[in-house]
């Protein structure tokens, strides 16, 4: 997988507003927030898209989603609600090819998305 802006954030080569970190996952605020809370959760392991995950990444994917829920509870909006989204490839609207989960919260989100 080629290097992305998110790999540079993991290596602290470019700044980001990091809000959560564990051994496998890093989370930071989106540069162009679409909701009052918009945080990106990424695996430190560089997987380009969800399609690139294999059974060997089962625990990592679980860790990624659990990190989202942990953060929502920690920040106090878990009960009120939030949305966790993975965009995959062109039709999914993916623009950065390092797997990430968008956590959106702090307003009533409409459905379906555009
Ligand atoms: P995607 O469209 O791939 O699902 O989401 C990529 C997200 O990364 C977008 O919401 C975009 O605003 C965000 N983003 C792109 N470049 C940067 C950056 O350098 N720093 C941060 N914090 N977010 C970025």
What do you see in this structure?
The mean pLDDT is 97. The relative contact order is 0.23. The chain is of the alpha+beta class and 114 residues long. The chain has one domain: HIT-like (HIT family, subunit A), CATH 3.30.428. A hairpin with a 3-residue loop joins strand 1 and strand 2. The chain has 3 helices and 5 strands; from the N terminus they run αβββαβαβ. It is globular, with a radius of gyration of 14 Å. Strands 1-2-3-5-4 form a 5-stranded antiparallel β-sheet, with helices on one face. 25% of the residues lie in helices and 21% in strands. The structure holds guanosine-5'-monophosphate (5GP).
Question: What order do the helices and strands come in, and which of them pair?
Answer:
Elements: H1 5-10, E1 18-21, E2 25-29, E3 37-43, H2 58-75, E4 83-85, H3 89-92, E5 101-105
Name the helix and strand elements from N-terminus to C-terminus, one letter apiece.
HEEEHEHE
Which term fits the overall shape?
A: globular
CATH architecture: 2-Layer Sandwich
CATH superfamily heading: HIT-like
Helix run count: 3
Average pLDDT taken over every residue:
97
- Give the DSSP E fraction (strand runs of 2 or more residues): 15-25%
Tell me the number of structural domains.
Answer: 1
Distance between the termini: 29 Å
The helix/strand class is alpha+beta
Bound molecules: guanosine-5'-monophosphate
Low-confidence spans: pLDDT under 50, at least 5 residues? none
**Strand arrangement, largest sheet?**
1-2-3-5-4
Q: Tell me the radius of gyration.
A: 14 Å
Oligomer: single chain
CATH class: Alpha Beta
CATH topology assignment: HIT family, subunit A
Major sheet description: 5 strands, antiparallel
The total of beta strands comes to 5
Helix percentage: 10-25%
């Amino acid at each position: 997988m080629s290097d992305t802006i998110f790999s540079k954030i993991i290596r602290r080569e470019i700044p980001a507003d990091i809000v959560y970190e564990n051994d496998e996952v890093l989370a930071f605020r989106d540069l162009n927030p679409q909701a009052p809370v918009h945080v990106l959760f990424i695996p430190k392991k560089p997987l380009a898209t969800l399609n690139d995950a294999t059974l060997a990444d089962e625990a990592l994917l679980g860790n990624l989603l659990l990190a989202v829920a942990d953060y929502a509870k920690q920040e106090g909006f878990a009960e009120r609600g939030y949305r966790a989204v993975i965009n995959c490839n062109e039709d999914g609207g993916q623009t950065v090819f390092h797997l990430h989960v968008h956590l959106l919260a702090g307003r009533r989100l409409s459905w379906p998305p555009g």
